[in-house]
């Protein structure tokens, strides 16, 4: 090829490359220009659904585009999480729900863990054992006595295999000495578990407090045991702390979930900053706070490294409990995940090498404190 032709070809290629780069840069600067989709990993009506929808409504107002919620149930949110991870990292698809992604490699519910997304937790809540009010149990000991006197296996419902409700349910069974007398039944979210409790298909449920707190307020359900370090009062309902009857269960508070959104870590930094600004706006709105506190959810917004720490710690708190109770076969040590007693951050090579948050996001979070 003649030298002149080579120069022309190189010039054309440089022009095309520059044009493509310019278009990509413009797309980042103009983001968002179309609706955003949130893949929510749990059923409609539960705490994940309530929190994410309230958060998305305010973030939509700030960003000026629709944020659409698509419930994608299954694998304790793992199906939705994996789907979002495999999507383009352009800021237009988020994961929504409980921030339990650190457990996914351990449970094999997804192929990737917390390291691949930036977590934006917005609220948190304790895990609670509920019964039907009509059954007449006033204390957790009443339920234990009924289980011991039953001439059948007693069934309890929870949010999903390996979830906080399942772990707390198994911890309670062991602490109460009820092994062999109780069978767990997983459902797609705490709201669904509550429906089956009301229908009489299970005898009690172990779910996130906010999943069915409104049914406790109206008197249909009654909380008997709450995985929290003190009694929790909400709209005239008392949620009794485990410290009274089972203080040995207090370390399990680390399994209590945060709820919010997560965004692919390969998303351009400028877009992550815009999402952080929208998140800051959303969690400060009275309409958001009222929406989640109405369900017994405690506002607890996090961003930056603090959010990474909260998300990562779930792998130790839940992962080891899941293994110890035979819920999963994989020992967390296989993934270099330490027990909580040995926990520090970073705690292994993958956590040390994770892509850091943009410095501007850390500044946004600092001013929120």
Task: Tell me what you see in this structure.
- This protein is α/β, with parallel strands linked by helices.
- The protein has 2 domains: 33-124 and 257-368, D-Maltodextrin-Binding Protein, domain 2, CATH 3.40.190.150; 127-254, D-Maltodextrin-Binding Protein, domain 2 (3-Layer(aba) Sandwich).
- Helices cover 41% and strands 18% of the residues.
- The chain contains 13 helices and 13 strands.
- The chain has helices at residues 3-30, 47-63, 78-85, 104-107, 140-149, 164-175, 190-198, 213-217, 269-283, 286-293, 304-324, 349-352, 359-368; strands at residues 36-40, 67-71, 93-98, 117-124, 127-132, 154-158, 182-186, 204-208, 221-226, 232-234, 237-239, 258-264, 298-299.
- The strands form 3 sheets. The protein has a 6-stranded mixed β-sheet, with helices on both faces.
- Helix 2 runs antiparallel to helix 10.
- The longest helix has 28 residues, at 3-30.
- The N and C termini lie far apart (64 Å).
- The model has no long low-confidence stretch (mean pLDDT 92).
**Based on DSSP secondary structure assignment, what is the total number of beta strands?**
13
Number of helices: 13
| CATH architecture annotation name of the largest domain | 3-Layer(aba) Sandwich
Alpha-beta classification: alpha/beta
Rg, please? 23 Å
Task: Indicate the percent of residues in helices.
Answer: 40-55%
The name of the CATH superfamily of the largest domain reads Bordetella uptake gene, domain 1
> In sequence order, what are the helices and strands, one letter per element?
HEHEHEHEEHEHEHEHEEEEHHEHHH
Name the average pLDDT: 92
If strands are numbered along the chain, what order do they take across the biggest sheet?
2-1-3-12-4-13
User: What gap, in angstroms, lies between the N and C termini?
Assistant: 64 Å
The biggest sheet, with number of strands, parallel, antiparallel or mixed sense and barrel status, is: 6 strands, mixed
The CATH C-level class name of the largest domain:
Alpha Beta
- What's the overall geometry? globular
């Amino acid at each position: 090829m003649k030298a002149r032709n080579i120069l022309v070809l190189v010039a054309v290629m440089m022009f095309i490359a520059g044009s493509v780069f310019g278009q990509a840069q413009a797309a980042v600067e103009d983001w968002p220009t179309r609706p955003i989709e949130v893949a929510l990993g749990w059923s409609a009506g539960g705490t994940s659904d309530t929190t994410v929808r309230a958060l998305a409504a305010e973030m939509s107002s700030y960003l000026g585009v629709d944020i659409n919620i698509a419930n994608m149930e299954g694998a304790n949110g793992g199906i939705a999480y994996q789907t979002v991870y495999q999507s383009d990292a352009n800021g237009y698809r988020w994961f929504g729900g409980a921030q339990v992604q650190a457990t996914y490699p351990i449970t094999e519910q997804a192929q990737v863990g917390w390291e691949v997304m930036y977590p934006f937790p917005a609220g948190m809540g304790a895990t609670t054992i509920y019964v039907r009010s009509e059954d007449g149990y006033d204390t957790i000991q009443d339920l234990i006595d009924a289980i011991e006197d039953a001439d059948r296996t007693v069934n309890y419902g929870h949010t999903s295999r390996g979830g906080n409700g399942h772990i707390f349910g198994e911890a309670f069974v062991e602490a109460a000495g009820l092994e062999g007398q109780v069978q767990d039944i997983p459902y797609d979210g705490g709201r669904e578990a509550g429906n089956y409790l009301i229908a009489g298909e299970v005898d009690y449920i172990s779910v996130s407090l906010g999943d069915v707190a409104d049914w406790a307020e109206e008197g249909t359900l009654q909380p008997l045991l709450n995985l929290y370090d003190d009694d929790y009062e909400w709209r005239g309902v008392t949620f009794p702390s485990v410290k009274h009857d089972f203080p040995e269960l207090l370390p399990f508070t680390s399994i209590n979930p945060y709820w919010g959104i997560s965004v692919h870590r390969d998303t351009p930094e400028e877009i992550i900053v815009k999402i952080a600004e929208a998140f800051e706006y959303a969690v400060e709105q009275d309409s958001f706070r009222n929406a989640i506190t109405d369900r017994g959810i405690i506002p607890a917004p996090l961003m930056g490294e603090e959010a990474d720490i909260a998300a990562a710690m779930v792998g130790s708190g839940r992962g080891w409990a899941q293994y110890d109770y035979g819920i999963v076969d994989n020992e967390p040590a296989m993934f270099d995940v330490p027990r909580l007693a040995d926990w520090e951050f970073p705690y292994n090579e993958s956590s040390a090498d994770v892509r850091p948050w943009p410095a501007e996001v850390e500044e946004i979070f600092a001013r929120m404190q």
